[in-house]
Amino acid sequence: MKLVYDVIEDSYDDTTHIRSMTEQARMPSGDWLIRTTIYSPHHVSVDITSVKGKKSRKYLFKALR
Predict the structure, then answer these.
(1) How many other C-beta atoms lie within 10 A of the C-beta of residue 45?
(2) Separation CA 59–CA 34 (nearest Å)
(3) 41 CB-side CA count, 13 A
């Protein structure tokens, strides 16, 4: 199963050189996956959260475009 992620948050701090990006993807069950990735000069960290959702909702958070 391949998920399509929509970016809902993307930020970069010039002082610390840390970038954070949060994305959402719709599961076939109607649930949502929220993926947050932190990029720093020294490492990468990822957190994935599953949120129960209704199939009738088009999106959980408004996507950046």
Answers:
(1) 10
(2) 12
(3) 5
